[in-house]
Amino acid sequence: MPTRNATLAGIGMMLLGILMFSLNDVMGKWLVATYTVGQVLLLRSAAALVVLAPFIVRQGLMRTLRPPKPRLQLLRVALGASESALFYAAVVYLPLADTMTIWMAAPVWAVVFAALLLGEKVDLPRWLAVAAGFVGVVVALDPTGASLSWPALIAVLGSILFALLMIAGRYLRETPDVTLVGLQTFGTLLIGLALLPFGWVPPTPRDFALLGLLGIVAMVAHLCVTRSLKLAEASVVAPYQYTLIVWALIFGWLVFGDWPTPAMLAGSALIVAAGLALMLLERRAAARAAASPDTRSSAR
User: What H or E segment, with its residue span, contains residue 55?
Assistant: First the structure.
């Protein structure tokens, strides 16, 4: 079982990873307005692999290419690459805040999958906190007829794939982080190559640099989330992805000039409250575990 410090560290890594994903999403939406999804995936993945190359060499190329549980590794690569492609496809047509809010269904799926696939025990207070976070997402979205469009359905599918990606990462927690991120980045590069025939727009030097930076930011985000899932249970850290909508509000206002509606602010308040409640519940559970007779006897 994860220790209290490891669990809190996992929560911190998830929060940092979500911030990095938010930066990735903002940059991605900016770039897909000009460039195709295929070349964005290709160039960002190539840049990330260049940065990862020294770590892969240090770890050993054969160790990276021959990880444990190869079938599950392949499934995880497919999930990660498909989820990235679906996000960029959806954000072309949907506002950033709407897309990111729909993606916030992922923690709900992840908690359910963690209980069904991993056998993790989720108590009632935690279920209630997750439900409150989901209600906050719905309030923030303020659903309209546009929510039933095919881009929104793509976003819903992407959120499900993202949740399954988290669960697969939990099963593969013994795999080195460099291997997990390297394989996923390579899979995304292959998806970009497959989509490349659908269009190519020559990037300007500035945008070429931004595409490379996009890959580095995405790589760091994946590393943080991967480490988070190794440090703590998926059902504990997954709900903290709700902070993504908070960053969507901030970046939407700063970058795209989108002023948050009262519904968006109210929903964000619920999401933050749910996250704080989950952290408090985790701390109390860790304190009870540390004070249990079995723990004290093992410490002796």
Answer: helix 37-59
Rounded to the nearest 10 degrees, the angle between the axes of helix 124-141 and helix 243-256 is 20
Percent composition of the chain: helix, strand, coil (DSSP 3-state, to 5): 85, 0, 15
For 127-139, the pLDDT digits (tens) are 888 888 888 777 7
With left for phi above 0 and alpha for psi between -120 and 50, is residue 140 left, alpha or beta?
alpha
Longest dimension (CA), the chain: 66
**DSSP-derived secondary structure for 183-213:** HHHHHHHHHHHHHGGG---PPPHHHHHHHHH
- Distance in angstroms (rounded) separating the CA atoms of residues 163 and 112: 9
* Helices 205-231, 4-32: crossing angle, 10 deg rounding: 160
Residue 227, Cβ neighbours under 10 Å: how many? 22
Compute the distance between CA of residue 80 and CA of residue 287 in angstroms, rounded to an integer: 35
Neighbours of 201 (CB within 10 A): 10
CA distance 261 to 128: 26
Task: State pLDDT tens for residues 155-194.
Answer: 888 888 988 887 887 778 778 878 888 888 888 889 888 8
Torsion of CA 189, 193, 198, 204, to 10 degrees: 70
